[in-house]
Amino acid sequence: MIQLRNISKHYPVGFGKHEILKNVDMVIHEGEFVSIMGPSGSGKSTLLHILGLLEEPSEGEYLFQGELVHKMNDKKRTQLHRGAIGFVFQAYHLIDELTVYENIETPLLYKNMPSSERKSRVADILDRFNMVAKKDLFPNQLSGGQQQLVGIARAIVAEPSVIFADEPTGNLHSDQAKSIMELFAELNKKDGITIVQVTHSDVNAGYGNRVVEIMDGRIK
Amino acid sequence: MIRNYIRTALRNLWKNRFMSFVNILGLSVGISAALVIWMIVHYDLSFDRFHQNGDRMYRIVSRLDFHQMIINTSGVPIPLIEALRSQSAGIEETAFLYQYSPNVKIGERKFGVLEKTTFAEPEYFNVVEYKWLYGSPVVLKNPLQAVLTEERAEQYFPGTPLAEVIGREVKYDDSISVSVAGIVQSLKGRTDFDFQEFVSMQTVRSDLGMQRMRGWDSWNNFNSSINVILRLRPGVAPEKIDAELAALIKPHTDKDSENKYSLQPLREIHLDPGIDFFGQRQANLPVLYKLGALVVFLLLLGGINFVNLQTAQAGERAKEIGIRKSLGSSKSSVVAQFLGESFVMATFAAIVSILLVPAILAAFRNFIPEGVTIAMFAEWQVFLFIPALVLVVGLLAGIYPAFVLARFQPVKVLKNQVYGINSKARLRQVLTVSQFSIALALIMATIIVSEQTKYVNRKDLGFAKDARLFVKAPGFRATTDKMKDQLEAVPEIEMISQAYSPPSFSGTSSTTMSFGSNGEIKDAMVEMKYIDEKYVPLYGIKIAAGRNLLPADTIHEVLVNESFAKAAGFKTPEDAVGQLIAINGKKHPVVGVVADFHTKGMQSRIPPLALSTDELRKTMLHVALRKDADVPRALDKIKAAWDASFPDDDFKPTFVDEALARFYDSEVKLRQLLGWATGIAIFISCLGLLGLAIYATRQRTKEIGIRKVLGASVGSIVVLFSKDVTKLVCIAAFIASGVAWYAMDKWLTGFAYHIHIPWWVFPSAAATALLLALATVAAQALKAAMVNPVQSLKSE
Ligand SMILES: Nc1ncnc2c1ncn2[C@@H]1O[C@H](COP(=O)(O)OP(=O)(O)OP(=O)(O)O)[C@@H](O)[C@H]1O
Ligand SMILES: [Mg+2]
């Protein structure tokens, strides 16, 4: 499903360049649950952004579902974001002007889902995350952890074929983290959704079936 | 999805309340101006569109070439009408109207001189269809019959049932008694055919005296109160009739005349600025074009604010776009979303404009035709114009910011690295410069127009204009003489003259003259004034050589002005004195040369002019009051003398200085309009600047805090913020000066006598704008600079 060949990423810094990812090769098969681990600043988020088609690698080839990503046009990428990819940001990134309900509803709107189905799906998710009471609040009225939950809910509501989650439980209590991980494991096993998560926690990594260690931009 | 967009749009509008307010206000000024102008345009374009077979209706117009002078007229010689009727096969019906402004009396009740009365034949009603309440067109076959509209009937016989109005008597000019024979409804719909009273043409035909007075049987009498409206047979080309007209008139005119006769389609009558329709207000297309340009400017100013503020806000909106893109929003849906926002904004602006329209209509009454009212919103052309305008304004203002925002890369914006937002600062500078260029050019134009108006009002006219008045006497020489004798006894009056027009007068009377020892002026049309021996001293006109005229009953002795003497080849005025001048072929001695005086507004050069006596044309009484006279008291006394002599005519005196001011009506209007436009332009521009300044200070709060911690003074921070604005306004002043100089120099060429554009106009306009701009920006900077630095740093 995902194949990285010799991927590098660097930013220009002064007269030189700052290498963040170096010659990364990686294959993730459909139905896998992969955890990416590594110290702060090692390039985990950058790698996940590249995987999620949010950022371009500087070098190398990336095949998503067998297709070369750098050859895709904007329309194709938009299509993938609508249907195939769900992304949980490290910094949550909710739309400040929309309520919890509307934030979760937005990806379904982009999929042109009929209103009745949309309503029942959003209601389901809200229920599952115990957020029904908060559905009309705006992001700045939520705690950090609650925002993170909304971010996760938004990523899975459209039932994508792959979820990229950047430290999805970083701000949650261990009990809540546990239920999120159980949810991920269930989505992975029952619906065959591929999951790639970044985590600092060995416990969370234990829910997956593979760990990729990253250090100074290289995969160990 | 749309709901989702509208929700974010509205919440964003609310979050940035002040910016939204600036945007909406700026746009609404432009939109309401556009709306009002469109109402005027639609009003003027919808005249007389409802007539049956209107596409086959025409008016006869003529272009008469008098060698020196070209006159466009809708007047038609009466013999031509008769000839057309009997000889032209292409014409289905010919209506012939003869406007008449009688002094009306019913029993003992006086109505004064009433407009909107015309002589008409039954045929008129075959061309223009009326609804008849009583009677039918045939009643106009007989002499001394009148048909009234309901309104006129109510005016003449208030409260009387219409049926009883039939048969009642109406007396015109104390001599003609007509009886009411029919009542019609006024035409419904916008029309120039708004006659209230039709008198049978037979009344004139059967009265020889009336016919003679009105030049009834002359082929050369193009009297503009006699018009022909005709309807062609289907399929007949108007050009065919044009040729027939020329052929019919040819045998009765000079062989070498270049006169042209043509049919003017009904729909063009209201739009012809050259030939009016019985004195009705015409559409003034050039003025509408100018107003249209002004509207474009105002819309532009509001639109620029929108683009500026929207791109300045882009940084704040970028995060939302990044997230949306990561959730699968395509570029086009981002564009759609932000266009939607500008439509929402434009819709609000349109709503505000609709509320503004009544105020605008009231404030600009003088510029707007009376018929243009809020009631016009009920017409679909006006009603639908509003959404159309919203669409256009929303699209034009929103398209650029929308594309700027849609181009953002999701991760870059989410990581707060939106490159390119700051580079848009350049664009904002360009737009701000254009805005201020427009505002500055308008300030400059306003100053120049008012300088020129000051100049024309102060310039020495060559005659005395203060405390002098004239009044047209109704005719009857003996009565006028008697009244004059009566006035001689009024102590407030210094002098009285009987003559035709005052020195400066809108009308012109010209005659063929030859003058000059070597035939310098030969058979030329030269302006002529008919005066008496008191005229020159009364108006303080200087005599450059020779002497004043002696009293005479016909053209006897002649005065010429310096320009005429010079044109005739005389080196000094003295040389012209004693020479002979031929007027209409008859020779007369020139007894004096008067110093040049202005016979028209400063738009026209002083023409060659001759002055002489002619008893028959001394139709106006000119009165000079003593310097110390109590004017209202003097007027009362003159009125008393008038009422004794002319009890049936209203006393309508005109002061010479007021009549002069009328030459500058359009300049005064222009100055008012420019004044408004300037104020609005400055207002919108400063509003936009204020928005940008608020953004800049908001973004730089941290910088200001750090600078203050490092020891910067409040003053130095204000200077920091004002530097950019100063630069922009200076660039704008430079551009505006060029544009304003070019445009106004051209405008001034419309005056034969004009100022040279004073240099100080440009720096002083620039200084004004700079002051306003700095005040706007500095206030914001000062506010930011006064904040305790710890506060601003902590909040980061
Ligand atoms: N736009 C940029 N320009 C220069 N360097 C950058 C840029 N974006 C990220 N980096 C650098 O790339 C490196 C990797 O960043 P990344 O966000 O991928 O780390 P991470 O592994 O996710 O860390 P954390 O666990 O703290 O989230 C960091 O050293 C960071 O400084
Ligand atoms: Mg990270």
TrEMBL record, chain A:
Residues 2-220 form the ABC transporter domain. It comes from the Bacteria. InterPro entries: AAA+_ATPase, ABC_transporter-like_ATP-bd, ABC_transporter-like_CS, MacB-like_ATP-bd, P-loop_NTPase. Pfam families: ABC_tran. SUPFAM superfamilies: P-loop containing nucleoside triphosphate hydrolases (SSF52540). Keywords: ATP-binding, Nucleotide-binding, Translocase, Transport. GO terms for molecular function: ATP binding. Belongs to the ABC transporter superfamily. This is ABC transporter ATP-binding protein. It comes from Chitinophaga chungangae.
Automatic annotation (TrEMBL), chain B:
The chain crosses the membrane at residues 21-41, 287-309, 343-364, 384-406, 427-449, 673-697, 709-737, 757-779. It is found in: Cell membrane. This is ABC transporter permease. The lineage of its organism: Bacteria, Pseudomonadati, Bacteroidota, Chitinophagia, Chitinophagales. The keyword Membrane applies. It comes from the Bacteria. It is a multi-pass membrane protein. Its main location: membrane. It holds the Pfam family FtsX. Residues 294-410, 679-788 form the ABC3 transporter permease C-terminal domain. Residues 20-247, 431-640 form the MacB-like periplasmic core domain. Keywords: Cell membrane, Membrane, Transmembrane, Transmembrane helix.
